[in-house]
Amino acid sequence: MGKKKSGMSKAKNPKIAKTAIIDKTANIGKGSVIWNFVQIMRNVKIGKNCVIGNGAFIDRGVIIGNNVKIHNKALIYRGVKIEDDCFIGPGVCFANDKNPRSSKIRPINKPKWIMYKGASIGANATIMPDVTIGRYAMVGAGSVVTKDVRGYGLVAGIPAKLKGYVCKNGKKRKNTRNAKKKH
């Protein structure tokens, strides 16, 4: 019997699908997996043991920590920094301009959005420009996040509003008295 093809390159670390388009200046950590039709632009840094799902787009200069899961068709634009252990669901979009016009490009010289350690964003959520997602915060699927989300905060809706707090494991907390204020 012949060997089954996985569609991935033979490289030991990282594993990169043959159909992925990756700029030569991108830095991808050991143990990371880049699936089919992913596009990674110049000067992107991706940590160790990350998974970048089918069709995701990672814009130039994006910084991604270790153990991050980015699901299919997510759009991560310039100016985003994602810390370790974060989860980004399918179809999530980090919008990069509140007032877009085809004749201009918003200047972004340093990270404007930060997704802190352990935070999670549900499927098809939109994160508007210059928003911070706090440590272990959780954004509900389909939400439009227009304001910073405090650490351990649970937000949902359009626009997203604080619905409560979660623990590190993502379970809703009953006691919010000791909830973290910011990141």
Structure description:
0% of the residues lie in helices and 28% in strands. It contains no helices and 22 strands. The strands form three sheets. A nine-stranded mixed sheet has the order 1-4-7-10-13-16-19-21-22, with no helix packed on it. A seven-stranded parallel sheet has the order 2-5-8-11-14-17-20, with no helix packed on it. Mean pLDDT is 89; it is low at 1-11.
The residue fraction in helices comes out at: under 10%
The overall pLDDT average reads 89
Kindly report how far apart the N and C termini lie. 54 Å
Q: How does the overall form come out from the CA principal axes? A: globular
Main sheet record: 9 strands, mixed
What secondary-structure arrangement, pairings included, does this model have?
Elements: E1 15-16, E2 21-22, E3 27-28, E4 33-34, E5 39-40, E6 45-46, E7 51-52, E8 57-58, E9 63-64, E10 69-70, E11 75-76, E12 80-82, E13 87-88, E14 93-94, E15 113-115, E16 120-121, E17 126-127, E18 132-133, E19 138-139, E20 144-145, E21 153-156, E22 161-165
